[in-house]
Design a protein that fits this description.
Length: 183
């Protein structure tokens, strides 16, 4: 049933765009909050803005982590549906099986990123709840920026699958043939 929903409503690209936006802006808000604290250390107004940015970051990171789970499962359903229609080059991008490249394939990276962003969201929640963990905020930011870079790379590989290899895109000739009844 889930695979049917993904296929009928083309959910994978929709969910993916939300995932990328939520997580990227969540990390950006956290970076801006940290920068504001560093630049304007003694200003009371900056504390208010920093707190607002951190609250925004928290909500975006949680929403993005949930969206990453949906991205992974909708992508898995799409890959299962479309695998046999893909060119070998597209299959290589989606699920490489040759050594180190396998870790950067679109599907495998999607699974790793789902786990990474779930962990980052939990870490972000813990930063909010525990003042003892506040000293790990810089490490959180470093890991989050690296994960965001990997997320953007994965988006690039998804774009290559669609725009360079036509994965999931019906050809104009095929659509015309369906409309004309195969004449």
């Amino acid at each position: 049933m889930f695979a049917q929903l993904v296929s009928t409503y083309h959910l994978h690209p929709i969910v993916d765009h939300f995932t990328i936006a939520l997580l990227t802006f969540g990390i950006a808000a956290e970076i801006l909050a940290a920068a504001a604290v560093l630049i304007f250390r003694n200003s009371a107004r900056v504390s208010v803005w920093s707190d607002k940015l951190r609250s925004t970051s928290l909500m975006l990171m949680i929403g993005g982590a949930v969206a990453s789970v949906l991205s992974y499962f909708s992508g898995d359903a799409e890959a299962d549906r479309l695998w046999d229609t893909m060119s070998p080059a597209a299959q290589q991008i989606l699920a490489s099986s040759n050594g180190a490249a396998a870790y950067l394939s679109h599907a495998v990276l999607g699974q790793y990123l789902m786990y990474a962003f779930l962990i980052l969201a939990a870490w972000r929640v813990m930063l909010e709840l525990s003042s003892r963990l506040a000293r790990t905020r810089v490490a959180f930011l470093v890991v989050a920026v690296i994960a965001a870079g990997a997320l953007l790379y994965q988006g690039k590989t998804g774009g290559e699958l669609v725009y360079e290899h036509g994965v999931g895109v019906a050809s104009v000739a095929t659509q015309a043939n369906r409309v004309s009844g195969g004449r």
